[in-house]
């Protein structure tokens, strides 16, 4: 007797699809059994998922047979109604027949197939690295967007766009380590605010001002740690929104892609986009992270708009603070959507905070048991992210607390403390005058 077994190959399937495994075999012997196995742990474990025993069963509902050249051709099928990621892996079909020469001898043969189960990504998000971070007026700094894609199998293709246009980025296998050291150019046209000059005029102004180009052009792209520059800057320049280190040329983007396997069989992909931030042109720029995956009919995306904070909204509780109360001053939001997350710094104008510190970080400032001396004190909240900063002020008004006795007088209204001291001093002066 002879026996040949083959399993029809399967294309990749998506989680949730129905899959039918088909085992074809041809023989001139009599059927003994059919067993389907799911193979796990690299082939060390075989789990039975279907068994047909011809000796004890005459149910051929899953079998199709017909005569062809005096041979029997069979097909055994196993259907998985909703495949899961855990169904991914190899499957085997084992067939046994009785030898035609003797009924005691069994001939065995098997075939195998690999079921490749794909899963589309379940989540995508874009965040900024190293946030919250301060805004720097006079030093170029790197900025990195991170796109995190989870739940996909296999690893997806991730790429960035700016304002709907794909970004051509330089692959970066290792984290950026800086691009050397260079000094910023001298400030030109000090009486002008560079933010009000078009880029074309700004470029012409640099070329036409008779200033020679630096002998060593600062590198475009990743910002480096800049050397300190000794330069006298007029007071009017301090209020400039953006200094001259802003590059006129298009930025160079650096791209890095990594992925890590997850215990459930999926992959977490992380893509980073790094460039030298230019607040003058990057403010209100729309960046999107897009993902292509064979299990997706169309790309999925997540987008963010880089925006500097504007118009913080501050609340104070209680609204009518009394001596001894605990006062909380909180930033509830802004007049706009801000990204990335701002850094909040609280200071007291003209003095230190109640706990003696010069400043406090966080969205909320808590003043424990406020004394009467804080009445009228001004508090400044500075909200900043790498695109810009803004200040807002609030004044604390502290009212008297009727539950706390007043210091200068007791409950009977008699003079105590400093008033008693002034009375004794007046009597002493009177005695001295009479003696003289």
Automatic annotation (TrEMBL):
Keywords: Cell membrane, Disulfide bond, Glycoprotein, GPI-anchor, Immunoglobulin domain, Lipoprotein, Membrane, Postsynaptic cell membrane, Repeat, Signal, Synapse
Membrane-protein topology: Lipid-anchor; GPI-anchor
Segments forming a coiled coil: none
The organism's place on the tree of life at top rank: Eukaryota
Cellular component, GO annotation: adherens junction; postsynaptic membrane; side of membrane
One GO-annotated biological process of the protein: homophilic cell adhesion via plasma membrane adhesion molecules
Main location: membrane
PROSITE patterns for the chain: IG_LIKE
Family annotation (InterPro entries): Ig-like_dom, Ig-like_dom_sf, Ig-like_fold, Ig_sub, Ig_V-set, Nectin/Nectin-like
Residue ranges annotated for the Ig-like domain, each copy included: 16-109, 312-397
Record flagged with keyword Hydrolase: no
Cell compartment(s), UniProt: Postsynaptic cell membrane
Subunit structure as annotated in this protein's UniProt entry: Interacts (Ig-like 1 domain) with NRXN2 (via Laminin G-like 1 domain) in a trans-interaction manner.
Functional description taken from the UniProt entry: Involved in synaptic inhibition in the brain. Selectively regulates inhibitory presynaptic differentiation through interacting with presynaptic NRXN2.
Name the record gives this protein: Immunoglobulin superfamily member 21
Gene that encodes it: Igsf21
């Amino acid at each position: 007797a002879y026996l040949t077994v083959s399993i029809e190959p399967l294309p990749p399937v998506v989680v949730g699809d129905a899959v039918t495994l088909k085992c074809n075999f041809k023989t001139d012997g009599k059927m003994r059994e059919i067993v389907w196995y799911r193979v796990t742990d690299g082939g060390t474990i075989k789990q039975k998922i279907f068994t047909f025993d011809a000796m004890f069963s005459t149910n051929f509902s899953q079998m199709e047979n017909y005569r062809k050249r005096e041979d029997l051709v069979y097909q055994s099928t196993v259907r998985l109604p909703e495949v899961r990621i855990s169904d991914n892996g190899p499957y085997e079909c084992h067939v046994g027949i009785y030898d035609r020469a003797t009924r005691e001898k069994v001939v065995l043969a098997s075939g195998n197939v690999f079921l490749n189960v794909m899963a589309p990504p379940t989540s995508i998000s874009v965040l900024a690295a190293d946030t919250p971070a301060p805004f720097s007026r006079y030093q170029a700094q790197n900025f990195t967007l991170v796109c995190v894609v989870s739940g996909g199998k296999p690893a997806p293709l991730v790429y960035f766009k700016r304002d709907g246009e794909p970004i051509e980025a330089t692959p970066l296998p290792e984290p950026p380590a800086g691009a050397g050291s260079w000094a910023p150019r001298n400030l030109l046209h000090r009486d002008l605010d560079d933010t009000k000059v078009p880029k074309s005029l700004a470029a012409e102004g640099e070329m036409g001002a008779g200033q020679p180009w630096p002998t060593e052009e600062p590198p475009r792209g990743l910002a480096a740690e800049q050397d300190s520059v000794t330069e006298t800057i007029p007071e009017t320049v301090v209020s400039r929104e953006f200094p001259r280190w802003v590059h006129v040329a298009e930025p160079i983007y650096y791209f890095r892609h990594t992925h890590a396997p997850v215990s459930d069989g999926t992959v977490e992909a992380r893509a980073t986009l790094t460039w030298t931030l230019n607040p003058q042109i990057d403010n209100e720029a729309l960046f999107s992270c897009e993902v292509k995956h064979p299990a997706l009919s169309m790309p999925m995306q997540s987008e963010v708009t880089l925006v500097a904070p504007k118009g913080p909204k501050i609340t104070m509780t209680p609204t009518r603070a009394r001596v001894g109360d605990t006062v909380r001053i909180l930033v509830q939001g802004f007049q706009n959507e801000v990204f990335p997350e701002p850094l909040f710094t609280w200071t007291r104008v003209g003095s230190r905070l109640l706990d003696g510190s010069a400043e406090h970080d966080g969205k909320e400032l808590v003043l424990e048991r406020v004394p009467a001396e804080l009445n009228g004190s001004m508090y400044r909240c500075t909200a900043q992210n790498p695109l810009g900063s803004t200040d807002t002020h609030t004044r604390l008004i502290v009212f008297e607390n009727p539950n706390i006795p007043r210091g200068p007088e007791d409950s009977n209204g008699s003079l105590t403390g400093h008033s008693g001291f002034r009375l004794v001093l007046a009597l002493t002066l009177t005695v001295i005058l009479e003696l003289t």
